[in-house]
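Consider the tokenized backbone below.
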């Protein structure tokens, strides 16, 4: 969907990063069906460099800089710092709200194979991935089994990556990029990794 103002439309790079990020921690909200959608990004203090990088990517669509917030965990009485920012509510986000949240809960869109690029994969991995011994683990715990199987299929078809499904609980699943695909996987995503997140590949 096009925005009336070209400066408020998503660039090709922004679209790639948005798709990958939405498979991870990025979120899109819409107050009402008649309203435009907006992007919401939050990271813990430890990843403030990465969040500031994401802000630089979407800065032209935002009206305010990232802000700190503090929350108290009553279980351990510790205060946690997070850094967050919102975009403006814009037509350019409406399509992504519709395909990722058709019923109000985030899913994997049926056309994710057409949307996910190597750059998008890198941002998904920076958000929700970690090296696990000789493999790379993607935390897809909020997605259904069918959604996770679709992602595994896309990783195979789009990037020729050998992946497996890991059941954490009866309704929670993770994806493992297998050791035999790690050389190819690193070659795909490392050019797009922010320096502060490269530790996840090491």
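A designed sequence for it:
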């Amino acid at each position: 969907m096009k925005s009336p103002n070209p400066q408020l439309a998503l660039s090709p790079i922004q679209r790639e990063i948005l798709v990958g990020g939405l498979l991870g921690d990025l979120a899109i909200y819409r107050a009402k069906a008649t309203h435009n959608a907006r992007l919401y990004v939050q990271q813990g203090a430890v990843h403030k460099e990465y969040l500031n990088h994401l802000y630089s990517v979407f800065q032209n669509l935002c009206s305010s800089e990232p802000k700190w917030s503090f929350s108290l965990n009553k279980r351990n009485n510790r205060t946690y710092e997070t850094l967050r920012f919102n975009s403006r509510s814009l037509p350019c986000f409406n399509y992504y709200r519709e395909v990722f949240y058709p019923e109000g809960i985030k899913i994997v869109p049926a056309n994710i194979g057409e949307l996910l690029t190597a750059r998008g994969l890198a941002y998904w991995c920076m958000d929700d991935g970690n090296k696990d011994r000789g493999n790379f683990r993607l935390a897809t715990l909020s997605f259904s089994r069918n959604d996770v199987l679709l992602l595994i299929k896309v990783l195979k078809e789009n990037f020729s990556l050998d992946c497996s499904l890991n059941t954490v609980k009866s309704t929670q699943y993770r994806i493992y990029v297998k050791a035999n695909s790690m050389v190819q996987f690193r070659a795909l995503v490392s050019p797009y990794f922010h320096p502060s997140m490269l530790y996840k590949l090491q």
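Residues 145-159 form the longest helix (15 residues).
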